[in-house]
Specification:
Layout (H helix, E strand, L loop, with lengths): L2 H10 L4 H17 L8 E4 L5 H6 L6 E4 L13 E4 L12 E7 L7 H11 E10 L9 H6 L7 H10 L19
Length: 181
C-alpha cells in the first residue's frame, strides 16, 4: 500500500463509519474468542497505524507489524510496533495466542501468509482476518489500494484451510452496504 493512502486511512479511521464498524466487529470477535485478550500475546499483522491494538486495549506483549512502517514511529506508545513482511514474520513458532490480519490477505501471497500465521500460532490459537468480498465488485479503488484479489467465501475458506487453520466462522459484515447489482 502506498504511504499517501495510509495517510488518508489514518485521517479517517477514528470516525469514519466503515472503520468504526470494522473496529466494533473485531473487538466483539476478539472478546468472544479470547475473553482474556488483555493477557494474551497478540500479533496485528499489517497493523498500519496501530489503532486496532490501541482500541482492543492490548497488553505490552502484543506486537503490531507492518511492511511499510510508515506510521509506526508516531505510534511508539503502548504496544510495540515494528516492520516486517507478512510472509516472513520475525516471530518464534507457536508463540502467539491471537493473530489479527485486517485487510491484509488481499495484498500478499495469501497462502504463504496463512502458512506463516499457522507457524506462529500456539496450539488452540486464534486467527481473525478481514478481506474485501465479492470479486465482481472489483473497481479502480482496489487497484489504488494495491489489492491482488477480492474473495468469495468458498475461496477464502479454502485458502485458510489449506494453510493449516480450522475455519470456525466465515461471515460478512456491512452487507447492507453492498450495492444492488
Amino acid at each position: 500500500m502506498r504511504a499517501d493512502r495510509l495517510d488518508r486511512i489514518a485521517a479517517a479511521e477514528q470516525d469514519h463509519f466503515w472503520f468504526e464498524a470494522r473496529r466494533n466487529v473485531v473487538i466483539d470477535e476478539v472478546t468472544r474468542r479470547r475473553p482474556d485478550h488483555r493477557n494474551v500475546r497478540m500479533l496485528d499483522v499489517g497493523c498500519g497505524t496501530g489503532s486496532m491494538l490501541d482500541a482492543i486495549g492490548a497488553n505490552a506483549s502484543s506486537v503490531g507489524l507492518d511492511p511499510l512502517g510508515h506510521h509506526l514511529p508516531q505510534r511508539a506508545r503502548g504496544p510495540r510496533f515494528g516492520r516486517a513482511r507478512t510472509e516472513a514474520l520475525p516471530v518464534r513458532s507457536e508463540t502467539i495466542d491471537l493473530i489479527l490480519a485486517l485487510d491484509v490477505l488481499e495484498h500478499v501471497d495469501d497462502r504463504l501468509a496463512i502458512r506463516e500465521f499457522t507457524r506462529c500460532l500456539k496450539p488452540g490459537g486464534v486467527f481473525i482476518g478481514t478481506v474485501p468480498a465479492g470479486p465482481r465488485l472489483w473497481s479502480y479503488r482496489d487497484d489504488d489500494a494495491g489489492h491482488l484479489r477480492r474473495y468469495r467465501r468458498v475461496d477464502l475458506r479454502a485458502t485458510v484451510s489449506s494453510g493449516g487453520l480450522i475455519v470456525e466462522q466465515c461471515r460478512a459484515f456491512q452487507g447492507v452496504l453492498m450495492p444492488l447489482l
